[in-house]
Amino acid sequence: MVFAHLFFDYKLLRGFEGSKYVGFRWFERLFSNPNLLQYILNTLKLNLSALIFLFPLPMIFAILLNELRNLRFKKTVQTLSYLPHFVSTVVLVSMIMTIASPSLGLLGKWARAAGQTPINYLADPDYFVLVNVVSGAWQSIGWDAVIFMSALAGIDQGLYEAARIDGANRWKQTLHVTLPGLMTTFVLLLIMRVGQMLSVNFEKVYLLQNNLNLSASEMLPTFVYKTGMESRNYGYATAAGLFNSVISLVLVFAANHISRRVTDISLM
Amino acid sequence: MKKLTALFLALAMLLSMTAVLAEEKPAVPDPKSILEGVTLEPSKALYLDNHVEITGMGVHFNNYPTEFDGAYYFPAIEKLTNAKFMIDWRVQDGYETQVATTLASGKLPDIMTAGAYGIINLANEGAIIPLDDYLHLIPDIVEAVGEDRMADWRQADGHIYTIPTIVDVPGSQSVMIRQDWLDQLGMKAPETWDEWVAMWRAFRDNDMNGNGDTTDEIPLALEMGGSGERAMASLMNAFGIRASSDTQFCVLDDGTYTMVYEHPRFMEFLQAVQDLYKEGLIDPEFTMRKQAELFTVMDTGLVGSAMTWAERARISTTTNREAGDEDALWTCVAPIKGPHGDQMTQERKAVTPVWCITYAAEEAGKVEDILKVFNWNFTQEGLVLYNYGIEGKTYDVVDGKYVIKPEFVSNGFVDYRATGMEYEPFGGRWFTDAFTQCLFAGKTVDQLDDASQSFYNGLAVVNNDYFYSMPQTLETEAYAEFRGELITGAGGVCVLRDQCIAGQMTVEEFAAKYQQLKDMGLQQVIDQGAQAYATIMGN
Amino acid sequence: MTQQAIKKRKRGDFIRRSLGEKTFDVLNILLMLALVCFFLFPILNMLSISLSNEYAVLRGDVTFYPMGINLQAYEQIFSHSTLWQGIMNSILVAGVGCVLSIISLSVAAYPLAFGDFYGKKLYNVLILITMWFNGGIIPTFLTMSRLGLHNTHWALIFNTMITAYYVVIVRSYFESLPSSIVESARIDGANDFRILFQLIIPLSKPVLATVSLWVIVGHWNDYLNALLFIADRSKYTLQLVLKEMVLNAESSVYAISMSGGTDTVGAAALGQQVRNAVLVVSMIPMVILYPFVQRYFITGVTLGAVKG
Description:
The complex is a heterotrimer. By secondary structure, chain A is an all-alpha fold. Chain A has one domain: MetI-like (MetI-like fold), CATH 1.10.3720.10. Chain A is 71% helix and 1% strand. Chain A contains 13 helices and two strands; from the N terminus they run E-E-H-H-H-H-H-H-H-H-H-H-H-H-H. Chain B has 22 helices and 16 strands. In chain B, the strands form five sheets. Chain B has a six-stranded mixed beta sheet. Chain B has a four-stranded mixed beta sheet with strand order 6-9-5-10. Chain C is 71% helix and 0% strand. Chain C has helices spanning 3-16, 19-51, 54-58, 72-78, 81-114, 120-129, 137-146, 153-159, 164-176, 179-187, 192-203, 205-221, 224-229, 238-246, 267-300. In chain C, 44% of the residues are buried. Chains in contact: A-B, A-C, B-C. Chains A and C meet through helix 3, helix 4, helix 5, helix 7 and helix 9 of A and helix 1, helix 2, helix 6, helix 7 and helix 9 of C.
């Protein structure tokens, strides 16, 4: 039912009865789109960069946070680190636009104060990945660290005791007790993230797009949304969406398989 | 401790709520009070036998009252004609999605505006009905549109689908310059292209706003429009391109309707603007500069020249002065003159399609009643209600003329509209007379202060010799099919244009890519557009 | 860890702290302080702009503290009835959505954790797959419409009611409970529903509280689904109202004809403050809620693997 739109020139008001059957036309059009490869590359670039930076950072943050000796300070830092997560994407985008604007934003002001030409972050395709990663880090480091904090709390204190008796310093303890203790969580999360790679970030990227950064910011999901909702071509959009889902599924099964081989941890 | 803080915050929220409820009302009369103590007799021109409820869905503008039960306009219509409008107003942003969701739900209102969804798309869905066979029911509307403006009323397929709104006022936008910056430099308002460029360079190189920073001035600020398409309108005009509102289509000197990219001067325009961008003379944020942000940079004293609503000349002058820049003055000037002497600006579209009648209304047998009510809206009685409001409350009749009470026009259009007069989201016909009364706020030209004079010049003086009639964007089948992919989407020609301007590709590369897009379907868009243009022009 | 144990460990550490460790501690504290600044500054900037004098804002002088207190922006937005309606709608969706989510997540996770039935592995995979493979926006939208859920808050609630990721989290926590309690309850003759609702759920407060907060924040911040599914203005959730107020400060004049005039004098200057004030207000309910759930955060979430 859901995928039946694939084969129709679907009209919303008329439903299937009133829509024309078009066979594989949407697939043909999708695969003959000269920009398809670029959309795929952009999707991968935006999400891989997010994965590479945003995935380990929360874990590192959690470990460092855990090393703080002053409990009150630790709690305060943790609490403040969550705050950005309560900012919704719509709001986040509005903040990014304000701060990054060369004429009105703080960054532009500082750059000029330092005697430099302000960078037009949102109008330069080269900076789009950076904007995406930094804003993602701001919003998710604290929140995503929660699960690692939990895992840290779950590590048997006896192991640290034993390590200390063996004369291990804190760095060694981290290396030999903490990291192995976080391994399962890390790998499982990673597998899940790999699968979600193509679908996260959609809202933010969509709202941050403008004509000058489109060459870096148009990805499959935004293309699907625009084709479907803005250009009202539901069959075409479903075809592109299906393609997106298939890539995701392949990625996740590959990640799961590799993980099972290498670490003996798997999700399925 | 934290819980205490949380409770405190919650309490603060509640308190602020009550504090606001107790807040005093501003001096302008409350729109809700307009109808108090007024008895409206049923109209002689039209009073429906049955109480008709007309449901609707449309795009709303911020400067009009949303709670229209409280404004005078709809309740008055109900009392006069026995027809009740129940319209669900939406914001423009995401409106096409709202239309799509409404269509998918299968429950259509009686009337709706198409917004970015496109009238033709609604027609293709079978959601709305053509009105060609009903024109005899709306004689006053047909007359108000007039023979020579019929082309603006028709859609690309030659049919009429809509109840229009009509504005009998020529100008609206104007190019404006910081007069005080010119004075500071000892320059005169530019007249040739070279003088324009020289002025922009001077704005760029000097610390015009005196904040100690020579780099933050924007010589020419540009507003993006809905999705970035409008930013170039003023510069295209300077190169003789008579572009449509979204700057994608134009009519050539020989009367052919085509895409602007086909215009003989287009590549020259592109090269010139690319140079301006490289030199730092035009707004580096031209693809992100929404209207609100344009106003902000103007108010902040960063902008040397811009093209926007003429009224902005008055408002920004005032704001600049209040913010401490006492000499600030925005002057409206004639359109930018291009290197070949071209000088023109878009005339305000007089006839704009607004309301579509849905098939749901047809099934409910309401079409005739709805059209009659809309037609009434274009009769003398309806037009007075639309333009001047309620006698004794918002206007008085002096020597047979309708004079709007001063408290509604003392602040230009602002309070006039906030009261619900000239309810443009709904539409009607706006008289030049009502317009002028707002503009002058009960004064004569000589009595106006310099900022208001500037506004007046922008609207009614400096642009008068340069208006051209703006062609519409014809939503042909090919246009509907390819718009997203080949025009506005990534890789679309409008996007490539902006990327070329920003130096992401050369003009030659742009031209080559444009050829590719033509092969992929833009040629069809061009051909069908030309054909549709011939149809609506009656050839 | 008991208080005593912490003290003991600290004392022990103190004796053995080397120079390298001390340097690390100092650097770590500095790094954390830097991070706090990174997290906090944009929010402070937002808060300061919303509270500042309009001309200070216009001059771009406001950074991280308000300049010349001006509460007009807040007065203006709180007089917007749509904002309150949006907040109420969001509370409704988040509240009902959270309760339903917690119940259905528990019911979904219980057999995965304690059940022993044929095809359990496949069942597990089928649930997981939805995380990565779905019809996408458009078919979801069309299906919801055909189900008659369009323009109801139920569309928002059902759409995210059972998220595979949360199922995994809840399942993992269930698995960490000693399975002996389930077995002994069975021996006492309790059926699965009683075991789940009277035994397991009360024991799983930490994870359920954490997931509740996630679900609530998810609903609270959801914009796209609301845009897709909600048509009536009276049903707008907070994010739709926000979008209207924040990103839509510009009047929609291009849509119809091109008539002049949009802002009053001063309103333009106030625009930035209003925008920021709206953002601040949107965060407050979450900030209020958060402390009540926080203590469960540290212990609540675990991830367990399927062996094999």
